[in-house]
UniProtKB/TrEMBL annotation:
Belongs to the extended synaptotagmin family. This is Extended synaptotagmin-1. Interacts with ESYT2 and ESYT3. Interacts with ADGRD1; inhibiting the G-protein-coupled receptor activity of ADGRD1. Interaction with ADGRD1 is abolished when cytosolic calcium increases, relieving ADGRD1 G-protein-coupled receptor activity. Interacts (phosphorylated form) with SLC2A4. Its main location: membrane. It comes from Puma concolor (Mountain lion).
Amino acid sequence: MERSPGDGSSPSPADQPSAPSDPPDQPPAAHTKRDLSSGNQPAGPGAAGEALALLTSFGRRLLVLVPVYLAGAVGLSVGFVLFGLALYLGWRRVRDEKERSLRAARQLLDDEERLTAKTLYMSHRELPAWVSFPDVEKAEWLNKIVAQVWPFLGQYMEKLLTETVAPAVRGSNPHLQTFTFTRVELGEKPLRILGVKVHPGQSKEQILLDLNISYVGDVQIDVEVKKYFCKAGIKGMQLHGVLRVILEPLIGNLPIVGAVSMFFIRRPTLDINWTGMTNLLDIPGLSSLSDTMIMDSIAAFLVLPNRLLVPLVPDLQDVAQLRSPLPRGIIRIHLLAARGLGSKDKYVKGLIEGKSDPYALVRVGTQTFCSRVINEDLNPQWGETYEVMVHEVPGQEIEVEVFDKDPDKDDFLGRMKLDVGKVLQAGVLDNWFPLQGGQGQVHLRLEWLSLLPSAEKLEQVLQWNRGVSSRPEPPSAAILVVYLDRAQDLPVNGDFLILPPQLKKGNKEPNPMVQLSIQDMTQESKAVYSNNCPVWEEAFRFFLQDPQSQELDVQVKDDSRALTLGALTLPLGRLLTAPELTLDQWFQLSSSGPNSRLYMKLVMRILYLDSSEVHFPTVPGTPGAWDPDSESSQAGSSVDAPPRPCHTTPDSHFGTENVLRIHVLEAQDLIAKDRFLGGLVKGKSDPYVKLKLAGRSFRSRVVREDLNPRWNEVFEVIVTSIPGQELDIEVFDKDLDKDDFLGRSKVSLTAVLNTGFLDEWLTLEDVPSGRLHLRLERLTPRPTAAELEEVLQVNSLIQTQKSAELAAALLSVYLERAEDLPLRKGTKPPSPYATLTVGDTSHKTKTISQTSAPVWDESASFLIRKPNTESLELQVRGEGTGALGSLSLPLSELLVTDQLCLDRWFTLNNGQGQVLLRAQLGILVSQHSGVEAHSHSYSHSSSSLSEEPELWGGLPHITSSAPELRQRLTHGDSPVEAPAGPLGQVKLTVWYYSEERKLVSIVHSCRALRQNGRDPPDPYVSLLLLPDKNRGTKRKTSQKKRTLNPEFSERFEWELPLDEALRRKLDVSVKSNSSFMSRERELLGKVQLDLAEIDLSQGAAQWYDLMDDKDKGSS
């Protein structure tokens, strides 16, 4: 790029970009020759031009005074003039900065190599990628191709905007019917690729390219709305970023590559020069706002996790998977604290230095989280947790920016960036990271959560999450990705729905869109206009706290949201039993047409942290943090130590809790809150109930479009005898934005705790109408196991499908102290705390600072649903030092003790350390269940009815041995206990639930089944209500593998009146798969029950002999 001396004087670098029409690769000598030749022109025209420019400049300055004159003529104050002047100066400053930035960027791109060699002192951020990174290649050949294609790309863009975009804009709004593109020019400055980096693919079927692109163009696009004489446009733009291109899948046929995916890994930087009416967007404040809104639009289209997919071959498989692949993993970000931040607050014009009010922005791709503000603290402690999905490794970064909150503009305190690949390698990364561009450090704990395609470790994950205190949201146990593909045969013009007349006048075809909701999280698809068989091809992602109990609610609606075209509620528990936690099928829509259905693919993945030492580090300054200057005078000392106690000494209130069972039945005459078409069309409401009691909140399911809803849900809460307690009840209408209030009521617990039962219709307050039917029952724990079998049987009968499993007992635990906890050589004593866990409920004690013999003196209570199988899990951990010991206490050990209580020292499983605790169990017996449960089991056949031995009759008071009592408490009795027929027996409970008008059948188990082949069968039970043989009355249990004595304990319901139930027969067949590839089923035995001959009011479990049947057809 050097010039010869014969070229004469060369222009300065600032003058070189003045000819924008020159190609970027043209040598500077060309500029020199042209400038020299122009120097021989006559000077006359130049003098006239200077005079004209002088007059133009004078005229512009004169025009500036016109607003001042007009303000004085109208009588406005000087403040308006000053405000307008300030606004103009701000606009001018933003405009000049953009033009200066464009000039500098064009200068660098026009003569990149010479300026790069000349300005090597520039920071790495300003240098091209091929200079900063040796593995990034400079692809000038690719830039030459782009430059050659650029004019033709401009022609294509002009056609696209004028023939496609403009008609769509004109049709979207009647006010824009005169919208046109008056000028579309991409200019002569093409897009440049500054560097190309090729990554080794994650698999052999893909190629990964990172293109460092830079566009500093003289693009000019002008639009006009002639009706309103409005003109606007763009003149010049900058766009810089890293575009990732993935070529996959690689196939064995031409064109070798099946599809191309493109996306920005991080948000690109954007700078736009506006013209016409959009000049207003360069006003300070609006400038950054407009650029942010445009960047958000680009991010929603081309920044991870969004991507542009271009299929290159027809009928490409797994297009949805390519367009929205599963994340590589999840990173759980614990934003713990910061220290040594800079002070930004100043008082008395800077004479007095204050502190800062810091908050942090955490960003990964388009996922952004904002922490709370800590006022006046240079060492803030946030203690917040966020979860982000990671799609590309390497490439994506975790970015944390810290700001000082101010009323006007927040001050920047520093930032840190970290590649997510380092978290993947480490698994768990806990460190203080220095802030760049400021001072101080930020403390992060980063955990990489792998995605498991099976539910084997779900219970382990849920148990761990219960012991984690996380804010603002609880930790997630799984993610759900929903691929929304298409719908079929949606209702057209109210064919299957009752529409108001206002809606029937519009298009016959609907404009369907889909709302997907899980609890309080709702996402929406795009709208497909005038189509009753829409294709969306979109993906939605949800975090799940407990996939066993959560549901996916799908609503197909018209674009106006005034009309529901169909609905679907899918319990996520179905995915837990599906192969690879995936469902890929058509789903029938309810409240829709007979053939209306939705095709979706649902993929669940369990979030698993694979680390042997998982604990949360101590945040500096928290209670229990180790102080190197402090010593524990009592550690290891036995001087004047009190004698070791043999039993606990809880206070008098321990173990006096009761359980309140709240049965939310129904409501009547609720007010209608839904309004459509600006209030012209009156709808109904989607009511649900919120309950608050004893510091806990409960929420019922949502009943769609019903002013007389029936919930029939049961909630249970542990209550004390403290006077003055009230149950707060609120009813709401579920909406997308803010739920509408439908009424409230309060119930004093004094009467319920005294009488034990309350069944009332409550009038809803603060609303014109509405009442709620509630049933409350106090359950007092009884310290005897004699009635446990009856309680379990009654709970199984009155259990509602929408409620959690009912509690059979209450466990009260008092943890007094621990001793002899392990010490590590050369370290201070630990700061221990304990976690008590039963099922999905945990209690964490306080932390005792630096001692191996902590005294906690804390109690906790737990609802127990299956005392025979559940256990109390205790973990002792040191704050910042990890696990110190654990204990697992099966509750079946309490069932064989006097008063169902254990009070003693327990040795921790590591052999070091003991804990002193008291655990007592109380059986919860309902006196108002409406079921007369029996503790007898019967064996029934066509010839005889033989009674089994009583389970509890004649049982001496706590004199049986533990194995004998456990055997008596189990549902699945041994085949030796009663004679079975040659084909075996099935144990059933058949009962009519009059409150719900439902026939209920519980399949408990089978025993002594027949084995025909070499291997045991894979049995399941099929139930059919005769004389109907259609699928509407058919029920089927799950299948058990290779057993002659399967345990089912599954409940089934049929909605029908009692008189009709008495005319039916229940056909029960026990079957087994004959082979893996065959649909044939082997009949192991069957029994047919005439319901008119059974006392359906009793709900007793009975054994029935299985009979042979000549008909062995497939099920």
